[in-house]
Amino acid sequence: MAEKSFKYVIVGGGVAAGYAAREFAKQGLKPGELAIISKEAVAPYERPALSKAYLFPEGFARLPGFHCCVGSGGERLLPQWYKEQGIELILSTEIVKADLAAQTLLSAAGEVFKYHVLIIATGSTVIRLTDFGVQGADSKNIFYLREIDDANKLIEVIKAKKNGKCVIVGGGYIGLELGAVMKMNNFDVSMVYPEPWCMPRLFTADIAAFYEGYYANKGIKIIKGTVAVGFTADANGEVKDVKLKDGRVLEADIVVVGVGGRPLMTLFKGQVEEEKGGIKTDGFFKTSVPDVYAVGDVATFPMKLYGDIRRVEHVDHARKSAEQSVKAIKATEEGKSIDEYDYLPYFYSRSFDLSWQFYGDNVGDTVLFGDNNPTSPKPKFGSYWIKNGKIVGAFLEGGNPEENKAIAKIARLQPPVEGLEELKNEGLSFACKI
Ligand code: FDA
Ligand code: NAD
Known about the structure:
- 24% of the residues lie in helices and 30% in strands.
- By secondary structure, it is an alpha/beta fold.
- The longest helix is centred in the C-terminal third of the chain and has 20 residues, at 315-334.
- Bound molecules: dihydroflavine-adenine dinucleotide (FDA) and nicotinamide-adenine-dinucleotide.
- Residues 51, 124, 169-175, 177, 192-195, 200, 227-228, 258-261, 313-314, 347, 349 line the site of nicotinamide-adenine-dinucleotide.
- This is monodehydroascorbate reductase (NADH).
């Protein structure tokens, strides 16, 4: 059986792996020291592109255009770059067993990989409707979106079912971004989700009302307060109808499901401490096992700013946690110390002509400001979250780079506010003057 040994192994070849590789190269790496093992067939890329420009009908993005680290304005790391750095990219290779005590990984094809230091960067997988036993949920043309292969399959069927009907199940990130791109592809789109408004984990009712209004004006039908309980298929096994819990039936040529993600950590179950549904780490992304680090979607880490611990499923954290772990690894080797991770949550999304950013924590009272009329030619509005008399979170739709920087700054600095009414009147200028 083939056995390979490396000083550092990153298991998972997604966003965090790409940014960790760049940091290793920056810190100094000898050829053959680092391997990235990924079940995907391509070098690390900026996953957010998959639900946006990758699916555009025209002017679409394709690899190698969005390999890491272009998403944060950095250099594009092509497969050639890894070669030049002496980093082994072991692609199309799924790790099926991890033995942390023996510092060994086993692939589906039977290869054995040994390491001194391991970075777990396996990310998330999608929650499937078949997991809940939804009838007919294994019919053809019901799609989930996580990896480039999923996107490629969806594109094939978008072409085959031209101008057809699409039902989007879920009103979170995937739901809203896919609803928009399917409409841009000229599908007749319906969206179904159980909550009273979209993105309830982040959006207030006021924020959601804008996006729901905007989507409705684009011709997207929004059906709230119910779920998909079954699918019927035609003679070819292709989805035909979506049955809703409230009794309605929607015709569908394509269904896209986005009902949440689940961190991929089964390989390490029982071998490493867990917390809040993720692998427990410290402010350097060290796990409970020596020389094993966990970054990105799988890591539950101390959120210094709020004095608690959290898991974050967003790209900015995947990038930064990866960099932090590599800095920590190198500092440990050199007997040096680095500062603990001090993360300011940053989430964003784009759809149609819209673009929003959010920084901080969405807890406490909220104040909405600006023009949130979905029919405005250039809507620009936002919201502050206020807790214990201080601004702790800020959201902005349609901001320019300076304004986005201002809301990031305000969420970090947490200035006190006099009154909510004054804050509402001042709106964005309150953030811009800080
Ligand atoms: P990531 O999922 O990127 O990578 C994990 C890698 O590990 C994958 O390559 C996987 O194949 C591999 N792997 C898993 N198990 C393995 C095994 N056993 N053996 C080998 N390889 C294995 N966030 C945001 O802030 N803004 C945005 O706009 C978007 N948009 C977006 C769109 C879509 C379609 C998705 C799915 C997600 C987003 N996100 C996002 C979330 C963001 O992409 C996500 O948080 C990061 O990709 C997480 O980075 P990781 O490296 O942790 O996992
Ligand atoms: P999500 O958690 O954002 O949304 C899940 C949504 O599923 C809920 O809001 C709810 O409306 C819906 N839901 C739950 N059960 C349902 C059911 N039975 N029927 C219908 N709807 C149901 O998850 P997602 O949108 O699937 O995204 C998956 C992952 O990808 C997440 O980690 C997310 O952070 C990431 N992602 C992020 C972005 C971004 O940051 N812009 C974009 C795409 C994906």
